[in-house]
Amino acid sequence: MPNVKANHVRKGQVLVLDGELFVVTDHEFRKPGKGSSFNQIKCKQLFTGSFKAMKLSSDEVLEVAFLEHRPCNYSYAEGDKFVFMDKENYEQYFLGEDLVGDKMKFVGDNQEVNVTFYEGMAISMELPTHVILEITEAELSAKGDTVTNDKKGAVCKTGLEVRVPPYIVAGEWIKVQTETGDFLGRVEAPSD
User: Fold this and answer.
1) pLDDT in tens, the chain (192 residues)
2) Potential cystine with 141: which of 3, 25, 145, 147 (Cβ 3.0-4.6 Å)?
């Protein structure tokens, strides 16, 4: 495992502390008027979400986790697991609900995502910035409502509920931002 001095730690790095993975959420070098300078590092435990704050001298060494990111395609659901296939070696990974959470509402059949591994174990799934989804249900709009900026409710094939313009109907394909769940535009149906 690579090591890094406390003054070289950066936000977003994943550290191994007492055998657990922590993501650095904030790093600040402080030099008080009295006493020696130090690094204030705040971290969030990757699985539990608990926070940890550390006060370290600049020459203290921390262990950085070696993470492997692999492109995978969503295949199918099996019980309470979601099966993803590695695009390079075709290996299948079974990810649990605890790992993917609400992200599956953005993942359609054969959708590509990045799965992050630590020591051969999947630890997270990262979505692309936007996805293309099919609308299966859309509220009806009154005639003439297309001129207003109001949006109506719609449901995608994956179960994602999204607010769309009045002209969107069931059977159309839309682009959705994964970070916010916002409608970005109407698109052509993807070719297989």
Assistant:
1) 588 888 888 888 899 988 889 989 998 988 887 888 888 999 999 888 889 999 988 889 999 999 999 999 999 999 889 999 999 999 999 998 888 888 999 999 899 999 999 988 888 899 999 999 999 999 887 665 555 668 899 999 999 999 999 989 999 999 999 999 999 999 998 876
2) 145
